[in-house]
Amino acid sequence: MGQKAFEHLREHRPVLHTSLVLSGKLHSYLAEVDNRATEMLERLVKQMAAQQGITEQLKAQDQMAWIGAMNNIRNAAEEIVHAEVIFA
């Protein structure tokens, strides 16, 4: 996710990008954004799986259904994270 944050910052927030580069804080800023995004993604995936009843029991009974459901959940969670953390 760090690469997307960097590209977004460079293309859509050039003043902030330049300021962070000149102050030597770009790396720490991107690391913080990446940490927040990763934590939020993990939390959202767990919450959404619980809300939809996607359990380890389903994984044991029907792996393909579990994989499909978890992929859908992860994609939805990534969209939320991008909107709220990466592209904010």
Number of helices: 5
Radius of gyration: 17 Å
Distance between the termini: 13 Å
Which residue ranges are poorly predicted, with pLDDT under 50 across at least 5 consecutive positions? none
Q: In which range does the helix fraction lie?
A: over 70%
Shape: elongated
The secondary-structure class comes to mainly alpha
Number of strands: 0
Q: Element order, helices and strands? A: HHHHH
> What does the average pLDDT come to?
95
Percent of residues in beta strands = under 5%
Q: What profile does the largest beta sheet have?
A: none
Task: Label this structure with key terms.
88 residues; mainly alpha
Quick overview:
This protein has 88 residues and is an all-alpha fold. It is 88% helix and 0% strand. The two termini are 13 Å apart.
Task: Compile the SSE list and pairings.
Blueprint: H1 2-12, H2 14-23, H3 26-51, H4 56-61, H5 63-86
Explain what the structure shows.
- The mean pLDDT is 95.
- This protein has 88 residues and is an all-alpha fold.
- It is 88% helix and 0% strand.
- The longest helix has 26 residues, at 26-51.
